[in-house]
């Protein structure tokens, strides 16, 4: 069924809701896991254009990915990690295509009204532009 699942982590408690469900799916389908996170701070968004050094945020996000990847590897999963910078939806879509993923797993956060306009743009864009299925898990409200 699924051969490679991109799990879009957001380096928050929401990951603890998403990972158990996707791990079960990966076990059932014997899928490889691609852990992916996009750093979104100022340096992360402009790093390439302005030739900036890694920020503390970027370093922390990379360490977080490595830690989560090691945990999954120790549980017996085939796992790779990938870090992106820039616009999350664009980077998720780019990574899924480049890595030949056949499922994207993400969390929703239950924003409402104004918060949807500010924070809720990643899932709609991924949902409209992805050419593979998307697995959404509700992580609760921020």
Plain-language structure description:
- By secondary structure, the chain is of the alpha/beta class.
- The protein has one domain (23-101, 113-138): HUPs (Rossmann fold, 3-Layer(aba) Sandwich), CATH 3.40.50.
- The chain is built from 6 helices and 5 strands.
- Strands 3-2-1-4-5 form a 5-stranded parallel beta sheet, sandwiched between helices.
- α1 (14-29) links the parallel β1 (4-9) and β2 (32-39).
- It is globular.
- It starts with a strand and ends with a strand.
- Mean pLDDT is 85; it is low at 112-118.
List the helices and strands and how they pair.
Layout: E1 4-9, H1 14-29, E2 32-39, H2 42-50, H3 56-74, E3 79-85, H4 88-98, E4 103-108, H5 114-119, H6 122-129, E5 134-138
Parallel strand pairs: 1-2, 1-4, 2-3, 4-5
Helix pairs in contact: 4-6
Share in helix: 40-55%
Q: What is the subunit arrangement here?
A: single chain
Q: Which strand order do you get reading across the main beta sheet?
A: 3-2-1-4-5
Per DSSP, the total helix count is 6
Rg for CA atoms: 15 Å
CATH class: Alpha Beta
The tally of strands reads 5
Topology-level CATH name: Rossmann fold
Q: What's a quick, concise take on this entry?
A:
By secondary structure, the protein is an alpha/beta fold.
